[in-house]
Amino acid sequence: MEVGKFIITGIIGFVGIGFKEKVISFCQRKANKAQIPINKCESLDFVEATHRHKVYPLMYCYMELDRNLDIDQLQIAVIRSCQYVPEILQAYDFARGRFIDKGFTVGDIISHASDLPQWKLDKRPQLQIVINDEKKKMIIGMSHILTDGVGFLQYLYLLSFLYNGHTPAFPLENCRDIAPVLKNVHIGRATEQTRQHKHITVPPLRKSSNGKKQFCLCSHIYPEDFSTLYCKSRKQNVTLNDVFITAYARVISRLHEIQTVVIPCPADLRKFSSMQGKFTVANMTGIYRKIVVEIKPQHSFSQTLSQVHIEMELQKSRFRCLIGIRPLDYTFHKIPRFILALGIKWFYHLLPVSYTNFGKIDHTKLFFNNCKITSCYTTGTYRFPPDFQISISTFQNVCTLNCTLTGQDTDKMTGQHILDEVKNEIIDWGNT
């Protein structure tokens, strides 16, 4: 401290007494800046932030409850969770690519309302919770810049754990660095299907418009049908993800009257490394950029499914979901962000038709004492016209097909029709 005073005094003596106030003010600003908590973003966080003008990076979890939660208890749980994921209480600085403390409190996270509209991640915290007491509903929104779908679920499990009065039995450290995932991974060549159809794209499923209405649409597969579906997929040695992609591709083929469909499919990179099982509220999702599905008029669902399964297995075995991530992570802290952003927009091109599978929401990890969750599903951000994404999640054997759209009333009709058609494809296959 004495050394610091000596330096400041020397500076003042050198530049003249008239500059005393300016020097002191400068030093105070530097000191205050150093005290502001800052958390860096990782390379895949930056990818989500870069595309914000086309797809704003948010995710949502919708819950219906049999009674209202204890708000005080929920506030305490959110506060406690900040020691493990401090970024939830911070804003995102788009200019510098980092999370910064703006003095938010839990009161800036939890509110009472009927819905949770899109919010600005640079103006408000990365987490938002809306309670609808009248309808006993809760909506939890999370920044996709902070984490992906798997990390979102991990945070929800943590919040539930803390709400129920528990404390982790061991120090819980949030691992956000993607580098360990990229070690010792060799990416194989593109599959034959990908090479043959590399120039094919799928037209949008809805029209462009200036509509501003927001729609959260769902179609459900209930336990009896889902159990049948699950058993049949196991018997045929295919995954439920294969089944969902097959149904979606067949509906797209029918709507557009085309015989070749290309769908991007996200992949959890934790599965390829020691990150599996660790606490990772982070972006660790790669993408199989082109799952090519050929659908001839005479093809049955099972024939299409067999083709999708083979293609998925080939791409998984060749780690095709990791393409571009290693050079991105290597250069992330080495080149200017604006140059990196241009490269990301060119390489990570967003398609108008997309798919995501949040997977199973574990009801043994997501529950609140003295309150039963009667319905739960997760979904992505609201898509602007003409983009469309189907989101799938499962809770207590209820599979929810969902889309969130910004647009006009016709978009609502189109979205619901697509969801119902995909559901019918799935159920019909399960029952044959």
Report on this model:
This protein is an alpha+beta fold. It is built from 13 helices and 14 strands. The protein has helices spanning about 1-15, 20-35, 45-50, 70-80, 150-165, 180, 190-195, 225-235, 240-255, 300-315, 325-330, 335-345, 410-430; strands at about 40, 60-65, 90-95, 100, 110, 125-130, 135-145, 215-220, 260-270, 285-295, 355-360, 375-380, 390-395, 400-405. A five-stranded mixed beta sheet has the order 5-6-7-2-12, with no helix packed on it. A hairpin with a 4-residue loop joins strand 6 (about 125-130) and strand 7. The N and C termini lie far apart (about 80 Å). This is Condensation domain-containing protein.
Relevant CATH superfamily of the largest domain: Nonribosomal peptide synthetase, condensation domain
CATH architecture classification name of the largest domain: 2-Layer Sandwich
Count of DSSP-assigned helices: 13
Distance between the termini: 79 Å
Tell me the name of the CATH class of the largest domain.
Alpha Beta
Sheet with the most strands: spatial strand order: 5-6-7-2-12
What fraction, in percent, of the residue positions are helical? 25-40%
Domain module tally: 2
Q: Name the shape in a single word.
A: globular
Largest sheet: 5 strands, mixed
> Which class of secondary structure composition applies to the elements?
alpha+beta
**What is the count of β-strands?**
14
Q: Over all CA atoms, what is the radius of gyration?
A: 24 Å
Q: Summarize model confidence as the mean pLDDT.
A: 91
